[in-house]
Amino acid sequence: MSSANTTLSDAFRRYVPLIEEEMRAVINAGSQPKQFNVMLNYHLGFADSGGAPVSAKAGKRIRPMLTLLSCEACGGDCRHAVPAAAGIELLHNFSLIHDDIEDRDELRRGRPTLWKLWGEAQAINAGDAMFAFAHLAVLRSVERGAPPERVVRALRAFDEMCVRLTIGQHLDLSFESRSDVTAGEYMRMIEGKTAALTSSACEIGALLGGADDATVQAFAGFGRWLGISFQLQDDVLGIWGDPAITGKHDSDLAHGKKTLPVLYAAERDARIRHSYLEAGALRSDAVQPVREMIEVAGGRAHAEQAAEEAYAHALAALDATGLDNAASRALRELAHSLLGRKS
């Protein structure tokens, strides 16, 4: 194992327990109806549907890790940023609860989604609660010693990110009923739906780490490009990934998803627009022919190249900070691992 890998794995071992302890403290605070509390803990992987503690698969905690590593890279005390990192993860999970309802997804990480178990109305309300808890988590950074003026700036960045997230989701939902979506429109959508969260995660970490304005913006740029690269890699895996590794039993094509490989290829091959964008979700026996057409038309190669370019932009933004320490090296290794992942 390389020293960079050791640095990153050590960071995950140190930080993830702190993040999850903080998340639990936030969502379990105060007096709550039992079912209300069970729903929150269930979605986060802390409990089963009856409320019994479990250790379910609950995401990789990449976004809060970006916050803490960015803070540490800037010379800050990561303890000041743990609540904000937990807030980032809670906000991400708020968006997942609502996305599952809007997309009619019945499974999340191999378990029934909240709306499937408790109905749409209760799931919407649970998502709203997660949104509020996320904000309360960020404010708890003051109690950990973060300068109040820095926390106010972090909360502003947090709320601006929330607006960008909802714009990204608006665009994504609007694409479902359109057959004329362009690759350019798709890139704008992922700027909000995916890149806004990773950008703000890094920006908030740098803010709470005491960085100057130029460095804060460089970290925001690193997170933005990393989020774009992450999503484009996900687009490729959604069509050509191994289901046994990705956990997706059906290709994105079977669900009618409009991702960059599809849209780029459709602009170059009218057959793809006719047989997929205008037809919607595919029958299982039609997936492979369309997949092959997309690859022949250059959709896969274009998305992979765009992911590589976004990754290079991310590293350039990090290099612009002039920082070279264990945490900044861990951020580089994390970026590299996300680009080369198989799931």
Overview of this structure, please?
With 343 residues, the protein is an all-alpha fold. The chain has helices spanning 3-27, 34-43, 62-73, 78-103, 114-118, 120-139, 148-175, 183-208, 213-240, 243-246, 260-266, 270-277, 284-296, 299-319, 326-339, and strands spanning 107-108, 111-112. It has one domain: Farnesyl Diphosphate Synthase (Orthogonal Bundle), CATH 1.10.600. The chain contains 15 helices and 2 strands. It has a two-stranded antiparallel sheet. Helix 3 runs antiparallel to helix 15 and helix 11 packs across helix 14 (299-319). The chain starts with a helix and ends with a helix.
Low-confidence stretches: 1-6
End-to-end separation: 21 Å
CATH architectural arrangement: Orthogonal Bundle
Class of secondary structure makeup = mainly alpha
CATH superfamily membership: Farnesyl Diphosphate Synthase
The name CATH uses for the topology is: Farnesyl Diphosphate Synthase
Tell me the strand order in the biggest sheet: 1-2
CATH class identity: Mainly Alpha
In a few lines, what is going on in this structure?
It is built from 15 helices and 2 strands.
